[in-house]
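Sequence, please.
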C-alpha cells in the first residue's frame, strides 16, 4: 500500500500524535500538507506537534496560517497565545488570549490565560471614537443583572466591535482607563446569562475588574479623539473636571442623552441626583460638541430645557439615534417566540402571600452604589402564564402604583377567576415604599400580584413568552426599552400615551391616557375580554418587533458622534464686564447659566469639582481663561479662599499675547483679594494660579484631598476706565455670591 496516499499520511500523523511522538507526527503532517495545503485542521495539528517538540516559533507560523483562513475561531487565538507565551512575548500573548475571550467569553482556558497576563495587555490602537462605559462599570461593581440604560450601553459597545475603543472611570478617580475588550465581553456575557451576584465565576470576574481599576492603562486624552459617554456618568464626582481636562487636550465630547427625568419630574428624584444632573446639564454648552438623544421626544425636551435655563448660550446640536435594537433573546428561541401567540386566558395559579412579599423587602444600598442600586436578591419561581407583565425597576416614575389601582378595579369588576395575574419584574429601589404599602394594605390584591427581581435574560425571555400582554404605565421616559422588548417577543404593550412611548411603541402598542387608572383598567379589560382582538393586534406587530440589529444602532451612533464632533462650535456669549463670575454652584438643585459661565472660564485639569462657594485648585498649576471683547488694557480681580492650615505660596500670572505679563506672589494663608493689570493686546487673557506645595484638606464626608487655594470669583474690567472698578465693587455688594 502506498503510504504517500493523503488519507494514510493523515492517519499516520494522527497515530504518532496520539502516541506523543511529536517529531514523527510533525513530519507526517508536513508530508500530508504538501498534498492537501488547505486542510486547516491539519495545519493546526502540525503546529501543535512542533510546539510540543520544542519549536514554538514554527508552531506560531502555522497557527498564523490557520488564522488567515478563519480568524473567527477562538481556539486558534488560544493556540497563538500559547506559542507567544513560550516565546516570551507576553504582551502579544495577552492580546491573542484576549481575542479568544472576545470571540468566546465562555472559554475558561483563554480567560484564565488572559487573566494571568492582564497586566501585559497592550493599550488598544489609537481610536478616533472612544466609548465611555464608566456608568456600566460602576453598576457592575454592585449589581449583575443590567437595567435599561446598562443594557443599551452593553449592546451598543458590543456591536461597535473594533470601530471604537472602550474606557471607564473609577468613581473615586478623575481619569479614564482603557477598558480591555476581553474584560468587557466577559462581563457582558455573564451579566446576561445569570443574575446571581455571588456566583463564583461572577465574583472572580469582578476581581479582575477591580484589579484593572487599580492598574489599568490610563487613557491620555489627545486632539482628534471623540469621547462618547454611553451611560449616565454625570453622577461621578470628578466627571466634569476630567471632561474639562480632556477638552483642554483637544478631545471632542458627545454624550448619549437617555432622558431628562431629573428636570422633567424633579419630585421623583432626590436633591442630590437633581443637583448632579443639573450641573452636568449646565456644563453641556461649554464641554459638549453635540448630544445624541435616544428619541425625538428627548431631543425636544433637551432643546426646551436648554432654552429655558441657559437662554444666552447656544445649545450643542442634537441628533437622534433610537436604541431600537434587538439582541437579547436566548439563542434558539427566536423563531419559536415569533411563531407563538399569547396563550388563552385561564384561572391564575396559587397566590404569592404577604409573607413572601415581606421577604422581598430590599436592604439598604451599599456605600458607593449607583443610584437606586441594591444588593439584595430574590428568585421566586417564575409564574405560569398567561399573566400581564410589567418589566421595570420599582421606582416611582415607572408608576407601578397606577397599575395596582387599575388591577384593584379589574378584580372588583371581573372577579379573581377572570382577572389575570399581574407580574412585576424589576429591581427593588429604596423609593418603592408606596408599592409595598399598597400591597400590604390590600391582601386580596397582593394575592394577585407576583414580584420578581434580579432576573437574567433567559428568565425575562420566558416571562415575555408566556405573558398575555405587557404593561408600561410610566410617567416619563427617554425611550422605553421594555416596550421594545415586548414588541420583539411579539407581545402587545399597553403603555402610557406619552411622547417617548409613542415612538418606542409605534409598531404595535395600545395606548391609554397617562396617569389615568380608569382608562388603564378599561384598556386592559378590553384586551383581556376579547382574545381575538388581542391576537389581531399582536399579528400586526412586524417581524422582530420592527427592531433593527444592534449593529445598525451602533453604526448610526458612531456616525452621529463623528458628525457632531466635526461641527464648528458656536462662540460663548461675551464675558460680562465688572461682574464677579462665581466659580461655585451655589448648592442649586437644577441647571443655571451661572454654572455654565463658571465652566466657560475654568480651563484644564487643575481644578477640583465645584463647591457651593467656589472651587479648589489642585496643588501645582490651575488656569482660568477670560475671553475679552476689547484689546485695550485689562484688569482682573480674583477673590480667594485659603484652605484651613494653608501652606506655602500662591503665585498668579496674568498673560495676554502682545503685552508683558502681570504677576503676584503671596503666602497661601494670607491671600484674599488680588487685582492684576496688563496692557493692550489680544482679546483673550489667561490667568495661571500656582500653589506650592498645596494643603491637605479633610472634607465633611471624611474624604481627604490635596488642594492649592480656593477661588471664589473672578472679574474682568477695562484697565483704563476707573469707573469699571466702581461698578465692580457695587456689583460685589449687590449681586449674591453664588449662581442663584
Amino acid at each position: 500500500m502506498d503510504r504517500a496516499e493523503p488519507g494514510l499520511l493523515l492517519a499516520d500523523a494522527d497515530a504518532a500524535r496520539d502516541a506523543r511522538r511529536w517529531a514523527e507526527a510533525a513530519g507526517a503532517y508536513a508530508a500530508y500538507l504538501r498534498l492537501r495545503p488547505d486542510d486547516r485542521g491539519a495545519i493546526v495539528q502540525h503546529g501543535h506537534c512542533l510546539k510540543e517538540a520544542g519549536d514554538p516559533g514554527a508552531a506560531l507560523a502555522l497557527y498564523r496560517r490557520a488564522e488567515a483562513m478563519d480568524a473567527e475561531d477562538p481556539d486558534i487565538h488560544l493556540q497563538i497565545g500559547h506559542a507567544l507565551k513560550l516565546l516570551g512575548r507576553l504582551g502579544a500573548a495577552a492580546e491573542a488570549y484576549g481575542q479568544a475571550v472576545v470571540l468566546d467569553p465562555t472559554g475558561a482556558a483563554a480567560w484564565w490565560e488572559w487573566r494571568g497576563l492582564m497586566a501585559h495587555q497592550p493599550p488598544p490602537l489609537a481610536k478616533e471614537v472612544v466609548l465611555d462605559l464608566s456608568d456600566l462599570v460602576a453598576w457592575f461593581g454592585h449589581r449583575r443583572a443590567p437595567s435599561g440604560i446598562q443594557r443599551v450601553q452593553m449592546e451598543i459597545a458590543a456591536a461597535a466591535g473594533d470601530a471604537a475603543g472602550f474606557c471607564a472611570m473609577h468613581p473615586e478617580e478623575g481619569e479614564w482607563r482603557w477598558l480591555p475588550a476581553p474584560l468587557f465581553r466577559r462581563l457582558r456575557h455573564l451579566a446576561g446569562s445569570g443574575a446571581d451576584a455571588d456566583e463564583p465565576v461572577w465574583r472572580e470576574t469582578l476581581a479582575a475588574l477591580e484589579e484593572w481599576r487599580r492598574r489599568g492603562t490610563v487613557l491620555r486624552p489627545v486632539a482628534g479623539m471623540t469621547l462618547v459617554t454611553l451611560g449616565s456618568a454625570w453622577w461621578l464626582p470628578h466627571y466634569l473636571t476630567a471632561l474639562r481636562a480632556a477638552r483642554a487636550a483637544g478631545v471632542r465630547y458627545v454624550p448619549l442623552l437617555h432622558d431628562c427625568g431629573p428636570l422633567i419630574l424633579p419630585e421623583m428624584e432626590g436633591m442630590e441626583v437633581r443637583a448632579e444632573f443639573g450641573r452636568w446639564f449646565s456644563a453641556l454648552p461649554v464641554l459638549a460638541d453635540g448630544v445624541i438623544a435616544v428619541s425625538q421626544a428627548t431631543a425636544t425636551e433637551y432643546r426646551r430645557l436648554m432654552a429655558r435655563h441657559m437662554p444666552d448660550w447656544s445649545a450643542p446640536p442634537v441628533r437622534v439615534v433610537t436604541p431600537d435594537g434587538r439582541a437579547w433573546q436566548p439563542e434558539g428561541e427566536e423563531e419559536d417566540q415569533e411563531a407563538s401567540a399569547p396563550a388563552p386566558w385561564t384561572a391564575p395559579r396559587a397566590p404569592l402571600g404577604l409573607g413572601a412579599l415581606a421577604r422581598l423587602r430590599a436592604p439598604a444600598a451599599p456605600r458607593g452604589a449607583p443610584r437606586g442600586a441594591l444588593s439584595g436578591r430574590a428568585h421566586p419561581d417564575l409564574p405560569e402564564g398567561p399573566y400581564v407583565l410589567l418589566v421595570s425597576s420599582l421606582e416611582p416614575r415607572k408608576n407601578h402604583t397606577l397599575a395596582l389601582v387599575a388591577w384593584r378595579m379589574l378584580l372588583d369588576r371581573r372577579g379573581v377567576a377572570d382577572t389575570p395575574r399581574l407580574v412585576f419584574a424589576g429591581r427593588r429601589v429604596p423609593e418603592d415604599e408606596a408599592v409595598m404599602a399598597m400591597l400590604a394594605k390590600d391582601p386580596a390584591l397582593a394575592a394577585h400580584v407576583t414580584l420578581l427581581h434580579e432576573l437574567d435574560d433567559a428568565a425575562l425571555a420566558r416571562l415575555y413568552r408566556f405573558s398575555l400582554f405587557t404593561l408600561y404605565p410610566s410617567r416619563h421616559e427617554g425611550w422605553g426599552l421594555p416596550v421594545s422588548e415586548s414588541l420583539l417577543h411579539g407581545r402587545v404593550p399597553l403603555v402610557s400615551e406619552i411622547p417617548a412611548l409613542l415612538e418606542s411603541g409605534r409598531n404595535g402598542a395600545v395606548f391609554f391616557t397617562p396617569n389615568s387608572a380608569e382608562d388603564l383598567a378599561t384598556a386592559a379589560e378590553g384586551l383581556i375580554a376579547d382574545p381575538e382582538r388581542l391576537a389581531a393586534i399582536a399579528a400586526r406587530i412586524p417581524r422582530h418587533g420592527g427592531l433593527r440589529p444592534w449593529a445598525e444602532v451602533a453604526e448610526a451612533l458612531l456616525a452621529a458622534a463623528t458628525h457632531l464632533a466635526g461641527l464648528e462650535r458656536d462662540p460663548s456669549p461675551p464675558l460680562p464686564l465688572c461682574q464677579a463670575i462665581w466659580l461655585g454652584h451655589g448648592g442649586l438643585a437644577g441647571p443655571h447659566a451661572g454654572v455654565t459661565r463658571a465652566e466657560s472660564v475654568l480651563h484644564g485639569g487643575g481644578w477640583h469639582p465645584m463647591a457651593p462657594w467656589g472651587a479648589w485648585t489642585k496643588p501645582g498649576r490651575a488656569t482660568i481663561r477670560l475671553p475679552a471683547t476689547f484689546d485695550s488694557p485689562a484688569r482682573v480681580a480674583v477673590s480667594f479662599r485659603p484652605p484651613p492650615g494653608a501652606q506655602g505660596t500662591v503665585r498668579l500670572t496674568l498673560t495676554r499675547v502682545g503685552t508683558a505679563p502681570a504677576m503676584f506672589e503671596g503666602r497661601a494663608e494670607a491671600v484674599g483679594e488680588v487685582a492684576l493689570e496688563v496692557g493692550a493686546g489680544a482679546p483673550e487673557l489667561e490667568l495661571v494660579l500656582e500653589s506650592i506645595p498645596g494643603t491637605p484638606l479633610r472634607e465633611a464626608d471624611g474624604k481627604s484631598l490635596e488642594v492649592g487655594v480656593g477661588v471664589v470669583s473672578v472679574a474682568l474690567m477695562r484697565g483704563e476706565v476707573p469707573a469699571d472698578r466702581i461698578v465692580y465693587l457695587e456689583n460685589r455688594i449687590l449681586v449674591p455670591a453664588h449662581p442663584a
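The first strand starts at residue 129 and ends at 132.
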